[in-house]
Amino acid sequence: MTAWQTGVREGTEPGGRSLNLLVNSSNPRRRLPVGQHAAAVLDTLRGAQTRTETVPLKSALGRVLAADQVATLPVPPSTDVDETAQPRDLVLERGTRLRARHLAAAAAAGLATLPVARRPRVRVVVTGDEVVAPGAPPRPGSVPDSDGPYVSGAVIRAGAKVAGLTRCPDDAEALTHVLDTAAADLVVVTGGISAPGRDAVRDVLEARGCELVDVVMHPEAPQGCGLWDGTPVVALPGDPTGVVVSFAVFVRPAIEALLGQTPRPPRWGVAAHRWHSPAGRRQYLPVVVTHDPDGRRFVWPASEYGSSAHPVACLAVADALAVVPEEQDEVLEGDVLPLLDLP
After folding, report:
1. What is the dihedral of CA 256, 280, 213, 24, to 10 degrees?
2. How high is the pLDDT of residue 305?
3. Contacts of 8 (CB under 8 A, 6+ apart)
4. Per-residue pLDDT reduced to its tens digit, 191-221
5. 40, 71, 156, 160, 313 from 59: Cα distances, Å
């Protein structure tokens, strides 16, 4: 049983031992630190790794290298081989998305095949009766879908494929059908996870053992993860800025894990002036990044409202998310902060 599956439901496994499968939705939603929920998301991927195979070089283009490493083989001296290459030198690292130049390096090292995996397929599901496709005629109370284009583009930039984008109404039967037919390695759902008994996504996911939690972060919003018939599902808030932040913190690392890539190290930036950060929550603030003549990286809030609001339009000019620790309630000019890249 995974860390996010709590509560009790009557049931047994083949050996007769009782199983705790479902969350009791009458319990208050738990509050988790960012790191604990991130670990739960990654835990959903265990046992759901993309199938790997060994293929000829000509079939490897566009796939992901699945071996821990590919080293050169002892080859006879030749003008076609880089003179600086030595037997056992590392040529390709696990998680490399193979391009033509990588195939050339493998061939020069004497390899005829490579162990590869296909790029993971991610199904994007945007929920809400009010959501309409971009450019569609507006109707009373409608909202253009910005989550779908963002998540789809971010999935591609992360190295995965979009297995489909579905806009689903707030209807449990419709959402269940979408998830049953997802045909993906990972499903990302946005919206509909706030209130039990009122939000269809929350009710449907909890009925399959996924827990919705409050993560101690800002922008603050519920998050969720779990398995749907063996397929990992990550649930994000519907607010556009919350989607951007949650994708960077939870979904992109999940895609990198499916690709076999190691987590990317953060960049660092110097605060150009002071701003407020909510006490007790880890803040992710959209910022603009500039450089001075010495190459130092400086950051400013991307919104004129500072940390109090994040209009979706500010995301178009933001270069990164500045991360402010939970124990810090004010950022001072000159503070050095880690940065998460935006796609």
Report:
1. 150
2. 61
3. 20, 22, 24
4. 988 776 677 888 999 999 898 999 999 987 7
5. 35, 19, 21, 18, 42
Nearest in space to 2 (alpha carbons), one of 21, 29, 18? 21
Say how many CA atoms lie within 13 Å of 210 toward its Cβ. Answer: 27
What is the gyration radius of the CA atoms in the chain, in angstroms?
23
Helix (H, G, I), strand (E, B) or coil at 93: strand
pLDDT tens-digit profile of 11-57? 333 333 322 323 333 445 688 999 999 999 999 887 666 678 999 99
Of 277, 283, 289, give the one whose Cα is nearest residue 342.
289
The conformation of residue 18, written as its DSSP 8-state character, comes to: B
Specify the pairing of strand 31-32 against strand 211-215. Answer: parallel
Count CB-CB contacts under 10 A for residue 6: 15
Q: Can you list the alpha helix ranges (DSSP code H) found in 193-340?
A: 200-206, 240-246, 252-258
Residue 138: CB atoms within 10 Å: 9
42 SS3 class: helix
How many other C-beta atoms can be found within 10 angstroms of the C-beta atom of residue 15? 5
CB-CB contact of 303 with 285 (8 Å): no
Q: 96-117 as b/e, with b when 16 or more CB fall inside 10 Å?
A: bebeeebbeebebbebeebbbb
**9, two tokens:** 């439901």
| Total-model pTM | 0.82
Residue position matching structure tokens 């759901």: 48
Nearest-5° angle of CA 268, CA 271, CA 277? Answer: 100
